TrEMBL record:
Pfam families linked to this entry: UvrD-helicase (PF00580), UvrD_C_2 (PF13538)
InterPro entries referenced in this protein's UniProt entry, alphabetically: DNA_helicase_UvrD/REP, P-loop_NTPase, UvrD-like_ATP-bd, UvrD-like_helicase_C
Coiled-coil stretches: 2-29
Binding site for ATP: G202, V203, P204, G205, S206, G207, K208, T209
Entry protein name: HelD family protein
PANTHER family the UniProt entry points to: DNA HELICASE IV, UVRD / RECB / PCRA DNA HELICASE FAMILY MEMBER
Classification via PROSITE patterns: UVRD_HELICASE_ATP_BIND
Length: 702
């Protein structure tokens, strides 16, 4: 055992002792359930502290930085962990929370010189770094100690040994936190200012999703008095993905963040009028084999996501608003008339900040008050209340002359009234569907837009911060609607243009989304390094999509070499047997998550049935799936987005399933980049021509 190891072991034991004693002390204090607000706040604080200490107890820290502030001679060892722990007696930190300003040194210090600086609330602090050490601890045991910098010592240079150690580990079936190895460029995103939108273009596996989740944890720590986790929202591409990322935030001590798909979230407003199942079930149709795109239909669907369509709906709403108040006075009884202009003035001016239906409600309430006052004045002349009854009857008739909008009727009206002004003409099939109240995903944003105009947004549905994952599949219209719910414009928008696999939605350039933000309130960042896959896998995948990349940067791998990618030609008769062989081979190598990736939903069903017939327990993943259990999954390629697996086998990668065009290249690119360690492509007698370029890049033929 080295002295370094021994030293760290004894430091760890001492630290655990201190943490456990603090924990025991807090646990002895009974919970407070009374009504005293001060006591309640103290109890809340104790519960937060307990949560932190329980996280800290098992793995108190992951890094150590010995730092001497300028003017001080001796360095102080700073231990950095997932949760900060205070030494109550000495009133100084025992463990520094990874989100604290000083911890940024740990992530930014690259060791070119021994000088370093960080921004504290008091200003810039400069000093000298003596040591940067990574310490992997699992269940209170030290697993590994790696010094990445020792002042005056020989520096190891480019390769971050500890990062490679972490990346080489087998993952379980959920995304995990990366606090111990956050890279400098990722840290800069995590610590970015609150009130700005960040748009992140990142290659597959660059940590976009992970980094966005860490940013939430950072924001909550940094602005704990102003922001609440329940008012944070993550928008993910499907429900299974929500499940897949669900561990990261609790691991970071953050709970209660809302996690939605856009469809689920939108549906929670529109439930009476709209059938979500219909939308979800349709997703797979886009990826049916030989799906020949109806260009008119595609153009219309894309148009529905555009800002231009947004403007048309806005114009239609303005028109509906202009004619909302009936152009007739309200006559309570003879000579007692409320002029139409007066009613309109209330509606247009006095209540203009309210949504339309609220304005209508307030106008009616005001007319009723007016009526009461008028009647009081003439009460003596109407002892039997005849005038009053008559007036109430007239009011009911008058109220019926006001519009009684439903979401559906207004959407229909908006589209039809503006159809001639639209850049893309609504197809007849769409209008027929609309009449039958049949919607698809691209109708959700306009429907919600109309909803907010009619009913407004209640304050509890507003967001403090919004993360949009896989944002290349988002439409500008969807983002415009989300902006209404997040007036602070605090957004993290992340995605990869090379992974846009939908012909009917999404964007071709980030400008389309960035244009929605005011000048200076949106920043664009690129992440080009890929941490997920081995070099061989990334180089192979890059070649598949290179011809369609235009100005999007290709992924650069971290130097982690693995097995060559296997491209295995398979004749039709050997299909099942070959797949079984590879499943068996990979499972025997201790792979814990393996995906057999097919081109379509139907093929997934077929492959899973065949695997089961051979005694292999395979779990089929469908578009309506809400959970992901790891192990062996059979999954259509379009659903693999955002996920990762230790090993991936792509089946039937042939010319029919993956012809040479942009969409199929991207689809195959997505499939290949899901693999961490092993990638196998089974082809047929006619391999996909998309593989031609890729072959020869770290490939072995089966
Ligand atoms: N700094 C890091 N240290 C260790 N692991 C990292 C780091 N950054 C990313 N990873 C790992 O890389 C993998 C990919 O991360 P993530 O899924 O967040 O990437 P992504 O950019 O969202 O990918 P994709 O676009 O393909 O969905 C994860 O396993 C994550 O833990």
């Amino acid at each position: 055992m080295s002295t370094t190891y021994e030293e760290e072991k004894s430091n760890l034991l001492e630290m655990i002792k201190k943490i456990e004693s603090q924990l025991a002390e807090l646990e002895r204090i009974p919970r407070y359930y009374g009504k005293d607000l001060v006591e309640q706040a103290l109890d809340d604080q104790r519960q937060r502290q307990l949560k932190q200490l329980r996280i800290a107890k098992m793995e108190p820290y992951f890094g150590r930085l010995d730092f001497a502030e300028a003017g001080r001679e001796k360095p102080v060892p700073l231990y950095i962990g997932k949760a900060g722990v205070q030494d109550a007696e000495a009133n100084e930190p025992l463990v520094i929370d990874w989100r604290a300003p000083v911890a940024s040194l740990f992530y930014s210090f690259a060791g070119q010189t021994d000088r370093a600086q960080y921004l504290s609330p008091e200003g810039l602090i400069e000093g000298t770094v003596y040591l940067k050490r990574n310490i992997a601890i699992r269940k209170q045991q030290i697993q590994r100690v790696v010094d990445s910098y020792v002042r005056g010592g020989e520096q190891t240079g480019v390769v971050d040994e500890f990062l490679l150690y972490r990346l080489g580990e087998k993952k379980d079936h959920r995304l995990r936190d990366i606090v111990s190895t956050i890279q400098h460029e990722q840290d800069q995103i995590i610590r970015a200012e609150r009130n700005q939108a960040l748009v992140i273009q990142g290659v597959p596996g660059s940590g976009k999703t992970t980094v966005a989740l860490h940013r939430l944890a950072y924001l909550l720590y940094q602005y704990q008095d102003r922001l609440r986790a329940e008012r944070f929202a993550i928008f993910a591409p499907n429900r299974m993905f929500v499940d897949y990322i669900s561990e990261v935030l609790p691991e970071l001590g953050v709970g209660d963040v809302q996690q939605h798909t856009f469809a689920d979230w939108a549906n929670s407003f529109l439930d009476q009028e709209f059938s979500l199942a219909e939308v979800e079930a349709n997703v797979g149709e886009w990826f049916a084999l030989g799906q020949t795109a109806d260009n008119k239909e595609l153009a219309w669907l894309r148009y529905k996501g555009s800002l231009s369509f947004h403007r048309r709906i806005e114009a239609a709403l303005a028109e509906l608003e202009a004619f909302f108040v009936p152009d007739k006075p309200f006559t309570a009884w003879e000579n007692k008339v409320l002029p139409a202009e007066e009613i309109r003035r209330w509606f247009d001016e006095e209540y203009r900040h309210d949504p339309l239906l609220k304005r209508k409600e307030r106008v009616f309430a005001r007319i009723k008050r007016w009526l009461e006052m008028e009647w009081k004045e003439m009460r003596g002349r109407d002892p039997r209340g005849t005038f009053r009854k008559q007036a109430n009857q007239r009011l009911r008739t008058y109220m019926k002359a006001w519009p009684q909008p439903t979401l559906w009727s207004w959407y229909q009206h908006c589209v039809i009234s503006q159809a001639n002004e639209m850049e893309v003409t609504p197809p007849a099939a769409f209008l027929t569907r609309l009449k039958r109240k049949k919607f698809d995903v691209t109708d959700l944003a306009p429907l919600l837009h109309i909803y907010t105009a009619l009913w407004g947004i209640s304050s509890e549905r507003m967001f403090d911060h919004v993360v949009v994952d896989e944002a290349q599949d988002f439409s500008p219209y969807q983002l415009a609607v989300l902006q209404q719910f997040c007036p602070s414009c605090s957004f993290t928008i992340l995605g990869d243009l090379l992974q846009n696999i939908y012909a009917h939605k999404g964007i071709s350039h980030w400008r389309e989304l960035m244009d929605l933000f005011a000048e200076g309130s949106c920043r664009y960042v690129q992440l080009n390094k890929s941490y997920r896959s081995t070099m061989e896998i990334i180089q192979f995948a890059n070649e598949i999509v290179r011809g369609f990349a235009r100005d999007v940067a290709m992924a650069t791998p971290v130097y982690r070499s693995g097995e060559p990618v296997q491209v295995v030609p398979v004749s039709t008769g050997e299909r099942e047997e070959t797949l079984l062989h590879w499943v068996d081979e990979l499972m025997n190598q201790g792979i814990s998550t393996l995906a057999v990736v097919t081109r379509t939903d139907e093929e997934s069903e077929r492959v899973a049935t065949s695997l089961r017939e051979h005694g292999v327990d395979a779990h089929v993943i469908t578009s309506t799936q809400a959970e992901y259990h790891g192990g062996l999954s059979v999954i259509p390629i379009y659903l693999t987005k955002g996920m990762e697996f230790d090993a991936v086998i792509l089946t039937e990668v042939d010319a029919e399933r993956y012809p040479v065009d942009e969409l199929h290249a991207k689809l195959l690119f997505v499939g290949c980049t899901r693999a961490l360690h092993r990638l196998v492509l089974l082809t047929t007698e006619r391999p996909s021509p998309l593989l031609r370029q890729a072959q020869g890049r770290g490939v072995a033929r089966g």
